[in-house]
Amino acid sequence: MCSGVKFPQCEKPQEAMYQAVHHQFVASALVVKKGHEINPELQIGAMCAMVPFYPRSSKPEDIMVAQQAMRDRYFFSDVMVRGHYPSYAKRDWAIKGFNIEMQPEDEYILKEGKADYLALVTTCPIPWILLRISRLKK
C-alpha cells in the first residue's frame, strides 16, 4: 500500500501509483503556492530519500540498469522542483499503456507551485543484486 492505494486491488499497480503520486504533486504545488501567498518570504521545500544504485560492473548493461533505477528515483523530485514532468514520463506511460488522468489546470498548478529547495535524506545504497532481481520480476 502506498498513499492509501491498495495495490492488490489494482489491475495495473504501477499505473495506480503514478496516478496517486500525480495527485500528491498537485496537492504539494497548491500548498507551496498558498504558502507563498501567505508569506512571500517563506521557503518551502520537497524531501526525497536518496538511495543510490550502483552498477554491478562497468559493463554497459549493468550501467544502464543502474541509470534507469536512478532515473526512476529522480522522477519524483524532478516534478516537484522543476514544476513539470520529465520529457520521458508521458512517453514511458504510453509505452506501458498507462492512462494517468490529469485536469487541464494541473500543468499550470505544477508550474506555479514549484518547491524552493530539495532536501535529501541519504541512506545505504541498494546492492545491485536486489535491483537486478526486482527488474527480472516485472
What would you note in describing this structure?
- The mean pLDDT is 87.
- The chain is mainly alpha-helical.
- It is globular.
- The longest helix has 26 residues, at 13-38.
- The chain has one domain (7-136).
- A two-stranded parallel ribbon has the order 1-2.
- The chain has helices at 13-38, 60-82, 87-96, 106-112, 128-136; strands at residues 45-50, 117-122.
- The chain has five helices and two strands; from the N terminus they run αβαααβα.
| Termini Cα gap | 18 Å
Proportion in β-strands:
5-15%
Average pLDDT, all residues: 87
Low-pLDDT runs of 5+ residues are: none
* Largest β sheet strand count, sense and barrel closure: 2 strands, parallel
Total separate domains: 1
Global morphology: globular
Report Rg: 17 Å
Strand sequence of the main sheet, in spatial order? 1-2
Which descriptors would you attach to this protein?
single chain, 138 residues, mainly alpha, two-stranded parallel ribbon, 5 helices, 9% strand, globular
Q: What is the topological layout?
A:
Blueprint (H helix, E strand, L loop, with lengths): L12 H26 L6 E6 L9 H23 L4 H10 L9 H7 L4 E6 L5 H9 L2
Parallel strand pairs: 1-2
Helix pairs in contact: 1-4
Task: Please outline what is shown here.
By secondary structure, the protein is mostly helical. Helix content is 54%, strand content 9%. It has one domain (7-136).
